[in-house]
Amino acid sequence: LLHGNLKPTNILLDSTMNHLKLSDFGYINIYNKFKYLVKLVESVNNKSYLPVETIRSYKYTPKSDIYSLGC
To answer: E strand or H helix at 37, and its extent?
Structure first.
């Protein structure tokens, strides 16, 4: 499962800091993937969390989510 929009505001922790939840899965869908990637790459707010490969080629892989998580 690819998230496609990992960034600090989409990572939620409970009050005990023991449980993590991911939010904002609304963008990814198979039928509209390319249109979504264009929107994601063109968004000023998301560029800091996207790997260069995604920005250049509009390809998003599981490695892209790992990169975004580390940013």
So the answer is: helix 33-42
